[in-house]
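User: Here's a structure from my thesis project, written as structure tokens. My advisor, Dr. K., wants to see whether a designed sequence matches the one we expressed. Can you design one independently, without my sequence as a hint?
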């Protein structure tokens, strides 16, 4: 698989500031700041959010930015672990020499494959997964203090990731979390500057794009799979969000 297939799904660059462009709003970001040989700070940018101001200060680091496609091709448990890591941990501070050495080795492997003219998509994705699994292992939930609304945000994102194909009403998620629909939207607007409906629709678009490119599903089947009552309703929804019809999108990326 040539570089042109994945080049728009991941970028690795040095430095981070307010002018740094992410691949998209709906992408993950990790920023590694090496303070010393035994001191590494790892900052996280969840989906639909930005890096904290703290990440943009201090020593120059290395930015890994990748689209959610790179984790969605694997099992749901892994994807949820990633969601947990990014949504509950603004940063991880590693100061044990073995941890730092181990993580640096994997970082070097990912960077090396990324810059390899003959880079393999499968190899790059596998190395990225190894990096993420190491970060999950080092992550200590109890060390990260969360407010109640942050926990509710995580609950919503986790449930939505599992249920968005058949539950598209925000009232369902509000009921499961134990808050009113209005309160859920207030929390999401405060944390992500989006309503529950907007986040669900964004997830539907991401899934629709993935299936249009990677599967042979018909557009009519996809419409009903994503909870739409009609083919025409789905087509209008997709074109408004993407700028082209589902069939045009599929033809373009194939």
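Assistant: Designed independently from the structure alone:
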């Amino acid at each position: 698989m040539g570089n042109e297939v994945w080049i728009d799904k991941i970028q690795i660059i040095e430095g981070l500031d307010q002018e740094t462009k992410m691949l998209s709003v709906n992408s993950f970001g990790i920023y590694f700041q090496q303070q010393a040989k035994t001191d590494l700070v790892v900052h996280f940018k969840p989906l639909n959010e930005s890096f904290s101001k703290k990440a943009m200060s201090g020593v120059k680091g290395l930015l890994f930015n990748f689209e959610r496609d790179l984790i969605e091709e694997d099992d749901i448990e892994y994807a949820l672990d990633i969601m947990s890591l990014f949504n509950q941990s603004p940063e991880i501070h590693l100061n044990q020499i073995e941890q730092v050495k181990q993580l640096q080795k994997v970082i070097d492997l990912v960077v090396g494959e990324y810059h390899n003219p003959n880079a393999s998509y499968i190899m790059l994705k596998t190395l990225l997964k190894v990096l993420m699994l190491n970060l999950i292992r080092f992550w200590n939930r109890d060390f990260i203090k969360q407010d109640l609304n942050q926990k509710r945000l995580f609950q919503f994102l986790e449930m939505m990731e599992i249920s968005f194909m058949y539950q598209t009403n925000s009232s369902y998620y509000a009921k499961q979390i134990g808050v009113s629909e209005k309160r859920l939207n207030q929390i999401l607007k405060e944390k992500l500057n989006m309503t529950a409906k907007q986040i669900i629709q964004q997830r539907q678009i991401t899934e629709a794009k993935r299936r249009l490119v990677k599967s042979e599903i018909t557009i009519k089947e996809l419409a009903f799979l994503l909870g739409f009552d009609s083919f025409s309703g789905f087509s209008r929804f997709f074109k408004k969000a993407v700028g082209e019809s589902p069939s045009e999108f599929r033809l373009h990326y194939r």
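When you compare it with your expressed construct, this may help: The two ends are 13 Å apart (CA to CA).
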